[in-house]
Amino acid sequence: MPELRKDPITGRWVIIATDRAKRPADFVRQTVPPRTAKVCPFDYGNEHKTPPELLSYRNTGGRDEQGWRVRVIPNKFPALGIEGELNRQGDGMYDRMNGIGAHEVIIETPDHAATLADMPEKQIEEVFWASKERINDLKKDRRFRYILLYRNHGEAAGASLEHPHSQLIALPIVPERVREEIDGARQFYDFKERCIYCDIIREEGAAGVRLVTETDRFCVIEPYAPRFPFETWILPKRHESHFEDADAATIANLAWVVKTTLRKIDKVLEQPPYNFILHSAPVQDPALAYYHWHLEIIPKLTKVAGFEWGSGFYINPTPPEESAKFLRDAGLG
């Protein structure tokens, strides 16, 4: 029988459509094809085809030259512009402001054909170090309230270039979906004086049925009320509200956990496109006792259609307990 499940953080309801239950082999495949050899502005030797770099980790060479391992550049076609003032104003009953922000690209490796699932752990670790370094620099600009790190893998997930890269967008407002999480976490804390994410880690670690992988620093789970099949959360065990405050040991273990989790997803789902999103506290806020940074990985296996848009409910054909078992059984951890 189908189930309605409530997300304990946001209060969002999800339909687990067991009558439509789908195993990994039942999904329409949108496998990310092998990377093709074509001219790419992110490849070695094409540094002049991108905006000047903001940060790089290098073996050799100077700025905007070959020899880099990780490179961060402004997006050539930014969603928001960094120059100017917000100029908040009313427009009759409406509100508007200038589109002020920053939009950066983290080129994760010189290897055009690489993926996060097959990169060396040290390379993935440097990607997170570069992200952390850029967030800490951007947050000095008091116009920016929130900085979103995300990764689109595969054309179906929104990637416009094949070369492995992630993106940072600094925003002058806190996105509504983040605000829903923060408000829900605050309400739980006000009532129980505990972080809801810390409670989830304890609950899932003890129950084990939705647990995918666990280390001394991280817990990887299929959440209780997932919006999408094989939606996967990576949660640090140590309470910390801001990703950019993570220490070196946490970043190192995060690289192993991300690589292992993506290898499991690739094995079970045959290299699907996915979105990878960092959820962290607003950058101008102090450390929050009630919020907990985490990563969400969402394979692109289903489409959001009229019912979802009209109702705000999501229909998920795969119970998270089954998703977790498939990923655990994949080994590789």
Q: How many individual β-strands? A: 15
Q: CATH superfamily name?
A: HIT-like
The 3D shape can be described as globular
Helix content: 25-40%
Structural class: alpha+beta
CATH topology: HIT family, subunit A
What's the story with the biggest beta sheet? Answer: 10 strands, antiparallel
Strand order of the largest sheet: 3-4-7-9-8-13-14-12-11-10
Mean of residue pLDDT values: 91
Provide the low-confidence segments as ranges: none
Number of helices: 6
What is the number of independent domains?
1
**CATH class value:** Alpha Beta
End-to-end separation: 33 Å
Can you walk through the features of this model?
26% of the residues lie in helices and 22% in strands. It is an alpha+beta fold and 333 residues long. Strand 1 (3-6) and strand 2 form a beta hairpin. The model has no long low-confidence stretch (mean pLDDT 91). It has 6 helices and 15 strands. The protein has helices at 121-138, 176-192, 196-207, 248-269, 306-311, 320-329, and strands at 3-6, 13-16, 55-58, 68-74, 89-91, 94-96, 102-107, 146-153, 165-171, 211-214, 218-221, 232-236, 274-279, 294-299, 314-316.
